[in-house]
Amino acid sequence: MRFFIIISLLFCVLLANGQEEDKLHTRNKKAIELYKEAQSLDHVGNYYKSYNLLLEALKRDNSFDEAVLLTHQVLIKRGELEKALKLYDEFVQGVDQQFKNRMLADAAYALFSEGKYEQAKGLKDQIEGRVEGLDDALFEIVTSSIDYAIQGSTNPRNIDFEKLPAPINNRPQQYFPSITAAGLLVYTVRDNYGRGDENLFFSQKEGDAWSQPLEISKKINSERNEGTASISADGNTLVYTACNAPDGLGSCDLYISYREGNDWSKPRNLGKTVNTLHWESQPSLSQDGRELYFVSARPNGEGGQDIWKSTKQNGKWMEAVNLGPSINTRFDDCSPYIHLNGVNLFFASRGRLGFGGYDLYGTEQVGQGEWSEPRNLGYPINNHRNQVGYTISIDGWAYYSDNLFDGTSSLYRFKLPNDLIPKQLVDYKRGIVLSSADSTPLFSEIYVADIAKDSIRSRTYSDFESGRFNLVLPQVEDANLYVKKRGYLLYKEEVDVLWKSGNEAAIYLRPMKKGEKVILNDILFELNSAELSTKATKELDIVVDFIRDNPEIIVEIGGHTDTSGEEGYNMNLSTERAKSVLNYFIKKGLLKEAFVYKGYGESKPIEAGISPKNRRIEISILDIK
What we know:
The chain is elongated, with a radius of gyration of 31 Å. It folds into 4 domains: 3-153, Tetratricopeptide repeat domain (Serine Threonine Protein Phosphatase 5, Tetratricopeptide repeat); 162-420, Neuraminidase (6 Propeller); 425-511, Carboxypeptidase-like, regulatory domain (Immunoglobulin-like); 514-625, CATH 3.30.1330.60. The strands form 8 sheets. Strands 2, 3, 4, 5 and 6 form a 5-stranded antiparallel beta sheet that branches. Strands 7, 8, 9, 10 and 11 form a 5-stranded antiparallel beta sheet that branches. It contains 12 helices and 34 strands. By secondary structure, it is an alpha+beta fold. Helices cover 24% and strands 30% of the residues. Residues 512-625 form the OmpA-like domain. Its main location: membrane. This is OmpA-like domain-containing protein.
């Protein structure tokens, strides 16, 4: 039996009818007995024995509508569509109209699922009146999709599909790829033609070639199933699915692991805010590893499998939330991929207009928790088969797997058409973090803040051993890069300045010493004012994090003015400016004992004359406990 037929006809299984005995269209008790036994066997997938029992039931009453319909459905599930159509012709005169319509609808959907759109339309157009067991909304999706597929397939996109070359695709089954900004491809391998367990492998893209695929880690792969992984764009965080693990909460749970040099940390179950007693799988991490989209079959969703999201706050994953009816339908929705820009979401669905099976759709976040109307990616990206498990590289290649009729699956890719490329693009930067004292590599946190929008736009960590990092950066006009590590001064530089000469940069962190200025140059004041501006508080929030990371330091808050006022007035004003910063720190929960504040008036200008840059705060390390 062909794989795609089984998958597509899950649609029909969900619609199987089970009337009470007094509502069945026969009075023959033996026929009813045979029908009910056949119905039970159908529910567990024993279509052959079920079929034989149904034939016996029809010998006793050949006008038994429910038995005729179930026989028709069983034949379709067995992949014997021609035989099902002959059965329809044989019994069409003897069954009620709504049962005829249901057989036409089931056969039309089966043809639709094989990509035989015109034949499906021929059957669909014969339907008149009510369809047994199908509500109006469901019938509308089925029939409209047939018309939609005919129209869409006559105007195909110009797509070149490329099978990934050797040494990729060296196993019978490989699927669900995920790729980093640097071209590291992680994917699932299942040996023994689907009868073996699942494990994660990786291969590095080097120019147009790929490295020999290797198991990702002995800490992750086991004798159980580990698969459908998502690796963050910087390559530092991995979320994957593990089934029937000793610490699992349900059948399949999501686990997380972090890169440690050339290996990965011991995986950790993401816990009850993400996992449930039900099935969770198909994760997609945002580029900074702080948003997780995934699929769950838990209740209280929109129906079937739904797409959910959890956000990492203060080191903890928050309670997952359903993406809601703008994304999820009453049927199965799955395979989310959040683009590197954090705005565009691609996913698969069976509950929207499409070409058969699961189709791919794209949407864009237009507000907090709000998404634009999903758009079908079109033909031949979508066809009558299942399109799931896509990932998109930073240079616009869509990587995916294709299941073949012989049970094998291989990895492919294609270049996204221009109209599908997200409007908000991203850039890719490389760098290395070193100590200014001796040039040793440093493990540190690196992040980019969008000054105008007061938001962290990208975050990553440098490697434990080499100090190197990969940074995916959404394109913003006014952004600063910060690097922090305990025991070192906070580093700050404009992104455009840091990488003005190329895509690689060396960043040197200075060890903390007494008298060193911590930062910053954006804690400025209006003329004759000690009131903190919005821009100043954004900068101070960064200082707050720095002080929390280094609780051993005593900090001096130094206030300054320009020369526009009297000397005594300026001294008082500078002191008030320093005090307002101290009060802000205390409001943020920092201890008052960690600070000394002092006004310097106009005595230490950094520019000549009445310059706004002189109306500032400087923060210095007074002592290290």
